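Case study.
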Amino acid sequence: DQQVKQNSPSLSVQEGRISILNCDYTNSMFDYFLWYKKYPAEGPTFLISISSIKDKNEDGRFTVFLNKSAKHLSLHIVPSQPGDSAVYFCAASPNYGGSQGNLIFGKGTKLSVKP
Amino acid sequence: DGGITQSPKYLFRKEGQNVTLSCEQNLNHDAMYWYRQDPGQGLRLIYYSQIVNDFQKGDIAEGYSVSREKKESFPLTVTSAQKNPTAFYLCASSIGQNEKLFFGSGTQLSVL
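After joint prediction, the assembly is written out as follows.
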């Protein structure tokens, strides 16, 4: 049973436009969310995170939005650049009564930004 | 430069053979993790360790073993009991459990 779902395996966007990557979760105990970026044959690198007490976090071209009632978060990249082409993983961390659980990852979305 | 080093980058295993993947970090992180990635799949947790001499099974620990004798090192052994070992293996570390993870560059294991 997938607790973190990235329903779009791939996304293609034109350079300069906005990329929107979506992530849904099922466990209301999740209280910390992260996005990782991964190039082929490399380890993922941390991109941006958001705590459940916020609904938006911005870092340069990257913004993450959290809708707790819908159990949905999204990553916006504006403007998209060819170097953004990678697989993006959404991850969530559960809080079990103050004790953090391990990160749970989605299956990833492959973003292709075309020049 | 601080970071996580995984070796080797590519590894081949013969049937019935145990192989060990190395993971070393000089970030002074307490927690270390091993994940497995299969094509089109997310990252699945194999084992994790929060402190030296202690480790716990993750979601897919069967056929794997680990040790944490030193803070800097968390080797993963893929035993002959793991029937489908071909995958991309990622080691990670964090300051504490489920702080931001820092990943190594991965080891691709294939079966001959």
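Observations recorded in class. Chain B is about 0% helix and 50% strand. Chain B touches chain A through 27 residues (CB under 8 Å). We will return to this complex in the next lecture.
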